[in-house]
């Protein structure tokens, strides 16, 4: 028995180096393959640069990334400190989404509801930081809209404008007008010959007649965050200067676009509304300007003349 053990021991000792020598190159190959599959994080869904929401609905910011190993997602403030959960106010989900919960007006916190966030994706290879995300929560407030009527003479064009309070003006748009009792007028480029709702919200009523004074109109507006629709009180038209000017009034521009900002490949509406009798004819002139951007591009500005 003793001799048998002496013979087995050297064999066992020799076998271990043989295993290491046999698999050493394969271990290196496996390591190289593993390293070749390592990949730093890249955003699959980067949050937008600006997020607005109403306190009655709440909001959320999505962020996801890919890489190898799979990156982890966290949110940071503008000063790079980590965003933490606040019970009943702010949550950070496992999938990388940050949720800002609905809240009463009294629970508004500027450092939560009007601040800058960034999404950070990281793994063992590296990390990537998103653009700044400006978050703005708007506390819903009750408002009402009124109708301003720019009267005109018989045979001319009247302009009805929906007056929105200043404190919600940037959040409210005119979606339609109602010709009482139940005729809805929606924005269009040409109108129907009698009524023309401009994309900017003004309602044009052409070829005014005395019978038009008995008609009523309402403005319908919508809050773009709460989707609340607010309708004005009914308003009647006024036709003046029926005999004094005998239907002849020189044209004057009463509403026009002073500046407009658009992104590349997007359309723009340039408003030009004039009053006069007979109805003014319109023409436009184009002037070329060069604006300094990342790449110089030619911009054209339409000058309205009536």
TrEMBL record:
<dbReference type="InterPro" id="IPR013783">
    <property type="entry name" value="Ig-like_fold"/>
</dbReference>
<dbReference type="InterPro" id="IPR007110">
    <property type="entry name" value="Ig-like_dom"/>
</dbReference>
<keyword id="KW-1015">Disulfide bond</keyword>
<feature type="domain" description="Ig-like">
    <location>
        <begin position="41"/>
        <end position="130"/>
    </location>
</feature>
<dbReference type="Pfam" id="PF07679">
    <property type="entry name" value="I-set"/>
</dbReference>
<keyword id="KW-0677">Repeat</keyword>
<dbReference type="GO" id="GO:0098609">
    <property type="term" value="P:cell-cell adhesion"/>
</dbReference>
<protein>
    <submittedName>
        <fullName>Ig-like domain-containing protein</fullName>
    </submittedName>
</protein>
<dbReference type="InterPro" id="IPR036179">
    <property type="entry name" value="Ig-like_dom_sf"/>
</dbReference>
<dbReference type="InterPro" id="IPR013098">
    <property type="entry name" value="Ig_I-set"/>
</dbReference>
